[in-house]
Specification:
The chain is α/β, with parallel strands linked by helices and 333 residues long. It has 2 domains: 21-247, Spore Coat Polysaccharide Biosynthesis Protein SpsA, Chain A, CATH 3.90.550.10; 249-330. Helices cover 49% and strands 14% of the residues. It contains 10 helices and 7 strands. Strands 3-2-1-4-6-5-7 form a 7-stranded mixed sheet, sandwiched between helices. The radius of gyration is 27 Å and the shape is elongated.
């Protein structure tokens, strides 16, 4: 007797994967005039995204920034006093992780970035083509940017490009998106700004960074982040130099050490020739000999620092690995 199979009258379907949660973080300091506009201009629905939430990090504002943000239905956390952009960005990342973010978009509170471009910003992440996406002002449209700031940004981006090997045009952009994994791995130590440091850190950890064009509008008033272009440039270059030492300590210290030694050789070449010819160093070359000796010693010491820094980098990587595992447990979904 054959077996009779009864097919179900309903179609068996596998549950569809849950769409990712997007958290838009907005560090804000005394931006009561624009914060509500920024929040309300964030798209309410985006293809490929399940839930969208907005988080404002109020950096000790003395105006109604927090009140305006709450009125616009954003989640608001406030710092005790003005702690700076880097601190606010870092706190925003951790809070977004606590809120269950799969993707985090960071934007500015001054309404210079076009929030309607957020879907384009996150698309490379949704398509699994990038871990961090930068909104490039220089590949997009800039309504207004002072010439000194424009060239300062370009110079800093060029140095960052040379240090990291990334083909990027705007390393200072505040309009960027990144995955939950990036937020778990990044550690912001700067007291000033997160922009260059997070890119350097991402490269150091082997994360994929790309950029798309974005629109940059004219700001209505003066920036509250830094006191002039010179102040900004000095801080940015300092961050990039420290970051380069973090990425390539051995080659950086070694390269500088070799340059100092070569300078010593060039200065001391007549001394060497005189010694080979006469077997002694004449009084005329005494000062050159002293300078050469000092440069040789300094060059060797700098190169030796590279070895120490390379060992410290290994220790740092072990500590960061432990910190990453701790964060994963702390912010587990």
């Amino acid at each position: 007797m054959g077996l009779i199979c009864f097919l179900p009258l309903f179609e068996l379907r596998m549950p569809s994967p849950e769409k990712p949660t997007l958290i838009v973080t907005i560090p804000a300091y005394n931006e009561e005039a624009t914060i509500r506009t920024v929040i309300e201009s964030v798209p309410k629905k985006m293809e490929g995204i399940g839930k969208i939430s907005i988080l404002v990090i109020d950096d000790g504002s003395t105006d109604s920034t927090a009140t305006e943000a709450l009125a616009a239905k954003a989640t608001v956390i406030s710092n005790h006093g003005n702690r700076g952009l880097a601190y606010s960005f870092s706190r925003g990342m951790e809070t977004a992780l606590e809120m269950g973010a799969d993707i985090i978009v960071n934007t500015d509170a001054d309404n210079q970035y076009d929030q309607s471009q957020i879907p384009a910003l996150i698309r490379p992440i949704l398509e699994k083509g990038a871990d961090m996406v930068l909104g490039s002002r220089f590949k997009g449209t800039i309504e207004s940017m002072p010439l000194t700031k424009r060239w300062g940004n370009k110079l800093a981006s060029f140095i960052l490009k040379q240090n990291t090997g990334l083909d990027i045009s705007d390393g200072q952009t505040g309009f960027r998106a990144f995955t939950r994994e990036v937020a778990l791995r990044l550690n912001v130590l700067s007291k000033f700004t997160y922009t260059q440091e997070t890119i350097i850190d991402a490269v150091d950890k082997g994360l994929r960074v790309t950029e798309i064009p974005c629109t940059f509008r004219k700001r209505a008033d003066k920036s509250r982040l830094f006191n002039g272009i010179v102040d900004y440039a000095l801080r940015a270059v300092h961050t990039i130099i420290v970051g380069n030492l973090k990425l390539r300590p051995m080659s950086t210290f070694g390269g500088v050490g070799i340059l100092v030694i070569v300078a010593g050789i060039l200065i001391g070449w007549p001394v060497i020739l005189s010694f080979l010819a006469t077997g002694r160093i004449g009084d005329a070359y005494l000062m050159r000999a002293i300078v050469t000796g000092i440069l040789f010693i300094v060059g060797i010491e700098i190169a030796a620092l590279g070895l120490i820094a390379a060992l410290l980098k290994q220790n740092r990587q072990l500590i960061e690995k432990h910190l990453y595992e701790t964060k994963k447990m702390r912010f587990s979904k």
